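Continuing the series of single-chain predictions for the mutant panel. This is the parent chain; the variants come on the following pages.
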Amino acid sequence: MTQSLDDAALLHVPGRSGVAGTYQGREAILQLLDHMTDLTGGTLRFVPTRTFTTDNEMLVVCGQANAQRQTRQLATNAAYVVSLREGRVREMWLAHQDQADFDDFWS
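Parent structure:
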């Protein structure tokens, strides 16, 4: 999906962890993903289980997010809501089944 990011894309990561916030621009989003990969020693994975489309402009991907960080484990159901424009990602929102667990993992 990273190759289809619009240069002005927005990513909204909810919560109160060190990775929470709104990231604007392709470079900022890719830097966040690199940072999260570094923090997890490359163990960060998202395994999609279902994909829904409302039209050519909205996509919802549900799946399992997994990672290991030192002695902590992350295993949570997640949904990624993606707004598309002309086939490019313009805005994304992340939602996790257990936000507190997600926050604890990234804090």
